[in-house]
Amino acid sequence: MTEKNHITSSCSISNGTVNKDDHKAFENHGLDISAFLLSVYQYFHFNYPKFYKMDNLSKLGWLAAEILLQNDFHKYNYQPEEIGVVLTNSNSSLDNDLKYFDTLKDIPSPSVFVYTLPNIVIGEICIRNNFKGEHAFFIQESFNADFVAQQVNYLLDNNILQACICGWVDVLGREYKATLFLVEKKKTEKSLLFSAENMNSIFNKN
User: Fold this and answer.
1) What CA–CA distance (Å, rounded) separates 152 from 146?
2) What is the CATH number of the domain that holds 64?
3) Cβ atoms < 10 Å from Cβ of 8
4) Please, is 128 exposed, middle or buried when counting C-beta atoms within 10 Å of its C-beta (0-12, 13-18, 19+)?
5) In sequence order, what DSSP letters do the residues of 20-74 get, joined into one string?
6) What does the alpha-carbon distance between residue 28 and residue 99 come to, in Å, rounded to a whole number?
7) What's the domain range around 159?
């Protein structure tokens, strides 16, 4: 385990609640996922019209990334090619795939079809922030912090990246959860050592 890399920010969205760096930032219970994600977007006063066209997986990941990067992250300290994204989930894009399948009974919907790949959420995050570094999306049965740590440490330790957003973004029906980590080489007063143990602690707490 390297001691050069640190979690400088985290964000979790699940069960009607948004947590940023272990603090509750917003909650709105009793809504379906689409209404809840819209309420998060409106509460944080985001202004990105493309949000409304995204599928729920992309909305969830995009919102988590926007909140993750608020306040303390200065992307202009890095070149676009130095910031990457590594995400995982267990359901791929199945939530949207099922919606697209339903459109086949009538007229196939191109606007739904475009989101039938899980890595589209990475594209939405990167387009928004002009990130051009390495990125990958892995499908796993459950959140595997050891695997994520191995992938991200390799990218940072070999100077392929200087910063990386990583974690879990998953949606299926009414169930949704995103837990993202911003990993950088710098150590700050609030940062945590980037380790599987620390990721699991945050993931399981929220």
Assistant:
1) 10
2) 3.40.47.10
3) 22
4) middle
5) ETTEEEEE--S--HHHHHHHHHHHTT---GGGGGS-HHHHHHHHHHHHHTTTT--
6) 25
7) 6-205
Contacts of 54 (CB under 8 A, 6+ apart): 62, 115, 124
Answer yes or no: is 127 within a domain. Answer: yes
pLDDT tens, position by position, for the chain (206 residues)? 445 899 999 999 999 999 999 899 999 999 999 999 999 999 999 999 999 999 999 999 999 999 999 988 888 899 999 999 999 998 877 666 556 556 656 665 665 555 555 678 999 999 999 999 999 999 999 999 999 999 999 999 999 999 999 999 999 989 999 999 999 998 888 899 999 999 999 999 98
Q: Is residue 1 part of a domain?
A: no
Q: In one letter, which amino acid is 186?
A: K
Alpha-carbon distance 2 to 22, whole Å? 23
The residue whose two tokens read 């202004």 is: 47
Alpha carbon distance 15, 176 (integer Å): 8
Let me know if residue 12 belongs to a domain.
Answer: yes
> What's the total number of domains in the chain?
1
Contact of 205 with 33, CB cutoff 8 Å: no
58 domain-assigned: yes
